[in-house]
Design a protein that fits this description.
The chain is of the alpha/beta class and about 250 residues long. The chain has helices at about 40-45, 70-75, 90-100, 100-105, 110-120, 140-150, 170-185, 195-200, 220-225, 225-235; strands spanning about 1-10, 15-25, 30-35, 55-60, 65, 75-80, 155-160, 190, 205-210, 215-220, 240, 245-250. The strands form three sheets. It has a six-stranded mixed beta sheet, sandwiched between helices. It has a four-stranded antiparallel beta sheet with strand order 2-1-4-5, covered by helices on one side.
């Protein structure tokens, strides 16, 4: 269980997170949605201790994140940030193996290689594992980074806008993969999404942020309603049901 209690974060004189509280449901997919500047990515970074909070608590399995040492926390939480710039040229296989660093500290064991190989297989990258990252398409590269996170073998996976710069085909492929992480592997996945329809189709729960506050949260079916969407986005968004899924018609 991950619990956020009354968390605040300020940059200069601006409050980016304003007494945010929420609980993440285990073994499910939770989507953070909301307009630009709502605090979604900052909240994700605070939960993963990449950004220091100014107040409140973040509890991971009942323990405040500040009480974990770095390697211990990295065996609980993994995060994929929006931008992943690497100072060296890596092959897919090498990148995925880097996910084992919290366990191996660079000295890979047979078990580490096994976890990395399983992550490569699970993400369908066997034929690309000897390719360099700069030889891949955007969707392939994103799958490689998700494989690295998967190799880290944490119960909690945090993804910050994993669909950035992907076309429709690759975005859908990534979301299906994320859905499998929860449904097949029992991971607890939290991700930031800009497209409400991907949240509507693939998330179990939606947390809506606006101006640094959680304004609504709940099961996806209860959140994808015109009255709720109006509160979040300040616009009227009709909702249609297509193939048993709710689709927001905002174009």
């Amino acid at each position: 269980m991950v619990e956020v209690k009354n968390v605040t974060k300020r940059y200069g004189g601006k409050t980016v997170l304003d007494h945010v509280s929420l609980s993440v449901v285990p073994r499910s997919v939770t989507a953070f949605v909301g307009p630009n500047g709502a605090g979604k990515s900052t909240l994700l970074s605070v939960i993963c201790r990449l950004v220091a909070k100014d107040g409140g608590e973040v509890l991971v399995e009942g323990r405040e994140i500040g009480q974990y040492d770095s390697f211990e926390l990295a065996r609980k939480l993994s995060i994929l940030k929006q931008t992943n710039q690497l100072p060296i040229r890596l092959k897919v296989r090498e990148l995925v193996q880097f996910g084992r660093f919290p366990y191996s500290q660079g000295r890979l064991t047979k078990e580490d290689y096994r976890y990395a190989d399983e992550a490569i297989r699970y993400t369908g990258l066997e034929e690309l594992k000897e390719k360099y990252l700069d030889e891949l398409s955007g969707g392939q590269r994103q799958r490689a980074f998700i494989a690295m996170v998967l190799a880290q073998d944490t119960p909690y996976v945090f993804l910050d806008e994993p669909l950035n710069n992907l076309d429709m085909k690759h975005a859908a492929h990534i979301m299906k993969l994320i859905r499998r992480l929860a449904g097949e592997l029992g991971k607890t996945v939290v991700l930031v999404l800009h497209d409400i329809n991907f949240a509507a189709c693939y998330a179990d729960r939606i947390v809506a942020l606006k101006e640094g506050k959680v304004i609504r949260e709940g099961p996806t079916d209860e959140m994808v309603r015109t009255d709720v969407l109006r509160q979040i986005y300040d616009m009227d968004i009709p909702v249609a049901e297509i193939g048993g899924r709710k689709i927001c018609v905002y174009f």
